[in-house]
């Protein structure tokens, strides 16, 4: 079964939930009419389903290969597919027209990125990180740097990487040792070892632009002495032609549980030539532009792998004849019934749908805030959108990847024994998706970012606004009897999220360990409430369509899946609230040596 | 970090919770004094940690190899380790002395099996399935069959397999096609293809005894026409010496996500010579002896992999210096604090401990029922024990493997990025453990067995007895203020399990889809209640030790972990109850074609 990009879902969200045509006066949105977007998404669907998806299993089985000369060979077909990707202009979709991009809203680009991540997550990481490097240089680079790098990153002619991690330094960037020494000519000599560098070396593009965190000689220790550098694989001339090979090489490839087609490199910088981006010792601020974008992207990957896993499992279930319905044969002329007759198989598949459809809505809804934060003329709208982006990024990354992995596991379960063999795609989906809980900050780090940084920022403005927006929606809609099931459920979840928020404000400030102990459950409570909000929005839109006489079963099915969410997913809120309110005393009193 | 068999936990359970010396008058238990058992477990710990565990990563990396002559080569070292295992007599531990076994209680054997499964699950499957074949022949075989096969299976000189699955026939054995034709000399000619046969071919032992389900020519269709046959790889002479090679060969090896060291074979039977076990068309009853034993064994595997994963993660966390405690540096002279200072890391590790310790108790507690069912002179005790075995087997298999896999995933999370690389053991634990949710009946099948078969059997006698036993414990102990936290929690969980049971009795009979829809949540609710019971028993025992002046911190830590269970795991009962009570209407009304 081939992956089918969910264009119908995308268009429903862009039109019925987000109504993106209302923003036609904003830059980029003028070109984003429903009709144009529909054409773009259909073309992206064809490209990803036909060109990229067939390479997914190949990439998993072959992996990447490191040659003795430190070059890296990607799996068969990746090179040709990457060329086709660049030629079709897909990387440029969301880039600024000033740099050769098409300037489409981020929310439209997100739909295309989802398809790429579902079709072949490992392959999708090369252009995905390139876009992140583009955004970082666009945010922090000099005019010359922008002119040199942005057009080539926007088009995908060159790819980008982020060089953060070192063996002793992952989450804790303050421990970073890679050093930068001024060369006297405005450049720096960068020396140090970086690990887990996705796309650090490969054969897809003519140049690779490494964004490297390093400490300039004499800079302060900790995170206040970290600068960001551009270290290109080949040093470009001013006209973009390639000059000397820089002394940054791939010293090893990591063997990993999944994403085998993505080259995860040990990068050795040996007095490599680097150019400072922005100010000395202020590198983390720029890197966080790339990181925040990457975090949303990882949340999307979690969802995208789960979507692909769900689709494959549903197709398997339709065809697999085994056993009989508990209520009597449904396929009496066949040797057995399809396993779709079993309530527990349906439970797993509908759990997936209930999370996937609302998770996608939450991602798109938030990505639109990103567009508004950048493009809206009204300062108040921009600020609110920026607040939301900050608040919701860790929720989307952490919650959607936790649930995405669980969906991949449930999807494998639908297959029975076949799922555990490498003959089907379930294993690869499960293995590939597992990294999304870890990279760009583990989900524990996301949860801590949420409770420790985002929640209290500006006196809790972001979360209060979010809770208030839900209140306003419930107040406006709760009179609608058809929607009442959804508004009641949303109000209940929101009340619990509010209670959890209050608990954190009361207990987390006096004892930060309480915040840490509550963080993951709070993040899940937040995710559940966000999804309940999305289900209410989607139910409202579906009911409106049906009231207007639209008989497409899409809408009735949407309501059923929403009901399933309320019945079978949302009851978890109470458990998360009870757990977070249990505090940190037991956790912290357990003696370290007894672990 | 090497795996450390948890002998201290085992002895606590056997002595303080199960008090196995009280059964000294039963066969086998006379040799199971605490002292003897302690010595056995220490010896098993040394053997598994030093001989078996070091082969775990080797097995994963090399896997098994199929030669053109259909022989299978196991990973380096497996053959020597298997020889050492047999020479040391470990396979014979739980076998009947009549067949050369040591006759020790199953509950003691279980502790040793846990070590084997933690040390190297793939390796442990060869002797594990051999014991299952032993049990099936002991239950259903003729005297001649017993005399010929049991001593050699008990010792491990020969290994055993179960040949059930065919491509069109997994859960639904009624679809089985492998056929058996009487040869006229009392034997049968068996022809058909079996898939996913663990240990179907290998180089560890001189002979392999396949137990094969097949349909005798002219037998009824469906499950009422299935017979069980012994199909040995080499046809033994009456004295046990090996005769002709039988025509059953390994036609292929499955590529799998995990347990690479276990040879998962496609077995082609081409008029192979087989001997009927028991009566014609009654093969499933005998096979279920092996299957039920295997199901408990798989629950144990889920726990065992999680134990190994937990241990490795805890060791990593102790050594990994990264970041600072939220409450200020705890290792001010070092570059950073150990990540054990973080509440969320502790949460993951203590979640694991809370499930592992009570899950092990529940397994042991149930395995002791198995001993009592076989060995107790009192008919009432035997019946009650047998009821419990039937009721709890699906719970242990389904609940412990679901939670075991989640623990493996959380353990990987503790590592951060390192966990996803194949340099550490986290990936293998996660991949190996994943099969436990699937084989010997998927966890969905376990849940259905629980609600569809076990719950209602004999008017619900087993579950009513179990709930009554909890009531009696709570009534007897709730006056103890130190224990009150545990008895209150247990009473609360039991009330919810009872409510769920009543719901099923009221709604599952009228509409079986309600039972199917509720099954997985009911199984989890049952597992949680069982673990709450075990925590109450363990807390009581720990408090008694402390009251008697024992200052071993083991007991105080036990109480802390039990508290963690109540605060952080048990709140899930409410969600499971709410989900199961939502019924099947939404699930079943979703159109099949819309999946």
Give a description of the structure:
The structure is a homodimer of 595-residue chains. By secondary structure, chain A is of the alpha+beta class. Chain A has a domain at 454-583. Helices cover 56% and strands 11% of the residues of chain A. Chain A contains 18 helices and eleven strands. Chain A has helices at residues 7-17, 34-52, 56-62, 78-88, 106-119, 121-140, 143-155, 283-319, 343-375, 379-415, 426-434, 443-454, 461-477, 484-507, 512-547, 553-569, 572-580, 585-589; strands at residues 65-66, 72-73, 158-163, 179-182, 188-198, 207-216, 227-232, 234-236, 242-245, 248-253, 264-277. In chain A, helix 9 (343-375) packs antiparallel against helix 10. Chain A is globular, with a radius of gyration of 24 Å. The model of chain A has no long low-confidence stretch (mean pLDDT 97).
Summed up, what is this model?
Two copies of one chain form a homodimer. The first copy, chain A, is α+β, with helices and mostly antiparallel strands and 595 residues long.
How is this fold's topology laid out?
Two copies of one chain form a homodimer.
Chain A: H1 7-17, H2 34-52, H3 56-62, E1 65-66, E2 72-73, H4 78-88, H5 106-119, H6 121-140, H7 143-155, E3 158-163, E4 179-182, E5 188-198, E6 207-216, E7 227-232, E8 234-236, E9 242-245, E10 248-253, E11 264-277, H8 283-319, H9 343-375, H10 379-415, H11 426-434, H12 443-454, H13 461-477, H14 484-507, H15 512-547, H16 553-569, H17 572-580, H18 585-589
Parallel strand pairs in A: 3-6, 4-6
Antiparallel strand pairs in A: 1-2, 4-5, 5-11, 6-7, 7-11, 8-9, 10-11
Helix pairs in contact in A: 1-2, 1-9, 2-5, 5-6, 5-8, 5-9, 6-7, 6-8, 8-9, 8-10, 8-11, 9-10, 9-15, 9-16, 10-11, 10-12, 10-13, 10-15, 12-15, 13-14, 14-15, 14-17, 15-16, 15-17
């Amino acid at each position: 079964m081939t992956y089918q990009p969910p264009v119908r879902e995308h268009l429903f969200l862009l039109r019925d939930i987000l109504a993106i045509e209302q923003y036609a006066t904003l830059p980029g949105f003028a070109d984003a009419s429903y009709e144009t977007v529909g054409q773009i998404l259909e073309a992206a669907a064809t490209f990803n389903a036909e060109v990229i998806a067939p390479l997914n299993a190949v990439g998993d089985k072959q992996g990447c290969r490191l040659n003795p000369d430190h070059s890296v060979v990607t799996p068969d077909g990746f090179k040709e597919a990457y060329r086709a990707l660049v030629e079709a202009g897909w990387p440029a979709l969301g880039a600024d027209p000033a740099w050769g991009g098409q300037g489409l809203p981020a929310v439209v680009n997100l739909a295309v990125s989802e398809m790429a991540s579902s079709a072949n997550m490992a392959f999708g990481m090369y252009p995905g990180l390139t876009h992140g490097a583009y955004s970082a240089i666009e945010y922090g680079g000099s005019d010359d740097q922008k002119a040199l790098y942005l057009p080539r990153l926007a088009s995908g002619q060159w790819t980008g990487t982020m060089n953060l991690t070192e063996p002793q330094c992952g989450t804790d960037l303050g421990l970073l040792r890679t050093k930068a020494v001024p060369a006297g000519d405005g450049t720096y000599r960068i020396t140090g070892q970086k690990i887990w560098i996705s796309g650090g070396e490969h054969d897809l593009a003519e140049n690779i632009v490494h964004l490297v965190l390093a400490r300039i000689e004499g800079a302060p220790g900790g995170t206040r002495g970290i600068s960001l550098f551009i270290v290109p694989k080949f040093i470009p001339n001013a006209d973009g032609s390639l000059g000397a090979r820089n002394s940054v090489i791939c010293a090893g490839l990591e063997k990993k549980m999944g994403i085998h087609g993505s080259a995860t490199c040990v990068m050795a910088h040996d007095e490599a030539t680097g150019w400072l981006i922005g100010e000395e010792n202020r590198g983390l601020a720029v890197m966080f532009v790339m990181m925040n974008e990457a975090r949303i992207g990882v949340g999307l990957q979690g969802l995208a792998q789960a979507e692909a896993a769900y689709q494959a499992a549903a197709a398997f279930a339709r065809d697999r004849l085994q056993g009989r319905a508990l209520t009597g044969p449904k396929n009496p002329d066949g040797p057995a019934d399809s396993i779709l007759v079993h309530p527990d198989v349906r439970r797993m598949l509908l759990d997936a749908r209930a999370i996937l459809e609302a998770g996608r809505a939450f991602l798109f809804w938030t990505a639109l805030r990103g567009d508004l934060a950048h493009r809206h003329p009204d300062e108040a709208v921009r600020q609110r959108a920026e607040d939301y982006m900050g608040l919701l990024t860790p929720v989307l990354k952490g919650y959607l990847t936790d649930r995405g992995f669980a969906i991949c596991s449930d999807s494998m379960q639908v297959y029975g024994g076949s799922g555990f063999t490498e003959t089907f795609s379930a294993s690869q989906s499960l293995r590939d998706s597992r990294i999304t809980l870890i990279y760009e900050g583990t989900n524990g780090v996301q949860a801590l970012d949420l409770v420790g940084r985002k929640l209290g920022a500006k006196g809790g403005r972001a979360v209060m606004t979010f809770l208030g927006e839900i209140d306003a929606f419930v107040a406006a809609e709760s009179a609608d009897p058809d929607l009442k099931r959804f508004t009641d459920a949303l109000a209940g979840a929101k009340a619990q999220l509010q209670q959890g928020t209050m608990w954190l404000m009361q207990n987390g400030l006096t004892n930060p360990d309480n915040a840490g102990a509550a963080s993951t459950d709070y993040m899940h409570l937040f995710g559940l409430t966000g999804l309940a909000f999305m289900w209410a929005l989607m139910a409202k839109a579906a009911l409106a369509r049906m009231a207007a006489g639209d008989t497409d079963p899409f809408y009735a099915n949407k309501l059923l899946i929403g009901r399933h969410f309320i019945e079978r997913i949302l009851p978890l809120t109470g458990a998360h609230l009870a757990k977070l309110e249990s505090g940190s005393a037991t956790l912290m009193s357990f003696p370290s040596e007894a672990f």
